[in-house]
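Quick one, tokens below:
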């Protein structure tokens, strides 16, 4: 598990250490699975520096147990605020209760959690994944206007039980339900990884009946899937409609070339900047919006 501590300067010698001590933020990033995630990490580090926040950063390398260990290390260090991007929604109650007992507020970044006691998390900074799924479905409805169907859809979803996986899938399905033309004939997790996106797409092309639409939960998986599609001699965007989510430059370039039909941008840098201003706002007694 990678760890980085950014030590920002305290006040001048002889000043009151409590008055001058910067806020200490412990941040557990879930991993480096995609270009979006790497950009989000850079944004968090840059925003902390700009805000004068001392950042303890740990990369969990896609493992929940590493994130739990990181949070416990932040508690032991007595940081002022803990923020983390949870790899999955469930299984956080015990460690977050430990943080609450220690008097340390916790902010969820990018993804949310499911808890028995919602007070264990102070706030959330991130995207509306449900609306991303809705917009993907709305694009497909517009694209297929006038078509009698059937429209066969393959879905490459994100990490099982993660917030974006659950809500990007739900928003998409809720938008298309009631329209009998649309059939999701294949759905499998690609874990938000480019390599797995390619593997899943190879499986789709090798074992499933022909599909008309690929709905991929992030750009890294989409880029891997497009490799597999092109290796089969098919043209993404014409032989198969491609719908993707995130904001990686590679996928944006494909959109410009006509290889992807719908691309929804996830606000990675903005989320990082908003998140790193929250600790001071919180400790100043202002609270954080819960939604």
């Amino acid at each position: 598990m990678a760890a980085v501590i950014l030590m920002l300067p305290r006040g001048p010698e002889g000043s009151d250490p409590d008055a001058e001590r910067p806020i200490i933020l412990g941040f557990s990033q879930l991993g480096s699975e995609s270009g979006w995630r790497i950009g989000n990490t850079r944004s968090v580090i840059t925003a902390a520096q700009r805000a004068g926040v001392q950042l303890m950063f740990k990369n969990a390398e896609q493992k929940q147990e590493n994130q739990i260990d990181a949070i416990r290390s932040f508690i032991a260090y007595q940081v002022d605020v803990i923020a983390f991007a949870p790899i999955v929604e469930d299984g956080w109650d015990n460690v977050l209760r430990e943080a609450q007992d220690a008097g340390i507020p916790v902010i969820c970044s990018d993804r949310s959690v499911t808890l028995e006691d919602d007070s264990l998390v102070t706030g959330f900074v991130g995207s509306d994944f449900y609306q991303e799924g809705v917009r993907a479905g709305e694009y497909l409805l517009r694209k297929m206007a006038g078509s009698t169907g059937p429209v066969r859809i393959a879905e490459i979803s994100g990490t099982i039980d993660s917030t974006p996986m659950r809500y990007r899938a739900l928003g998409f399905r809720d938008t298309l339900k009631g329209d009998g033309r649309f059939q999701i004939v294949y759905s499998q997790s690609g874990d938000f990884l480019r390599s797995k996106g390619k593997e899943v797409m190879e499986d789709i092309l090798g074992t499933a009946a022909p599909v008309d639409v690929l709905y991929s939960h992030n750009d890294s998986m989409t880029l891997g899937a497009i490799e597999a599609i092109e290796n089969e001699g098919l043209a993404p965007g014409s032989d198969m409609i491609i719908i993707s989510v995130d904001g990686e430059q590679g996928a944006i370039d494909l959109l410009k070339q006509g290889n992807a039909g719908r691309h929804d941008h996830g606000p990675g840098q903005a989320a990082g900047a908003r998140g790193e201003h929250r600790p001071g706002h919180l400790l100043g007694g202002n609270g954080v919006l819960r939604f």
